[in-house]
Design goal:
about 130 residues, alpha+beta, 5-stranded mixed β-sheet, 5 strands, about 35% strand, elongated
Length: about 130
């Protein structure tokens, strides 16, 4: 099951489609990325299989980055990302239950240049039948 990679791809596409205020959504941003943008952060999964269904609970973090002078705008974009993902599923791409937003926060980044928003989502994904 390669659910993590597929989930990252469909979440990226969903954010690009639903949150036009971002300049891009990157797996890993480069120094040339222009504020405001998002990156796909840490992810992990735990086994949630039962006797007849192979399943995982996948957690994915989406990071929103904005300039230090725009904390309110970063909060708005973080909310927009959370709204775009909460309750959404792409069942054509993956056998999944709707995403749940489990954490949202905005903080000053220690770099002194940016504000960092975090949206954490969880999804139950199942292995496709063979």
């Amino acid at each position: 099951m390669r659910a993590g990679r597929i989930l990252r791809q469909i979440v990226r596409a969903r954010i690009l489609d639903q949150v036009p205020g971002l300049t891009g959504v990157y797996d890993r941003a480069t120094e040339s990325a222009v504020f405001p943008y998002a990156t796909l952060g840490a992810s992990y999964w735990t086994d949630d299989s039962v006797e007849c269904i192979e399943a995982r609970e996948v957690t994915l973090q989406i990071d929103v980055w904005h300039s230090q002078s725009s904390k309110g705008a970063a909060e708005d974009l973080t909310d927009d990302v959370a709204t775009a993902l909460h309750g959404w599923a792409d069942t054509d791409a993956l056998t999944m239950h709707p995403l749940r937003v489990t954490l949202v926060r905005v903080m000053d980044d220690p770099d002194g240049v940016s504000v960092h928003g975090v949206v954490q989502v969880e999804a139950m994904v199942e292995a496709d039948p063979v």
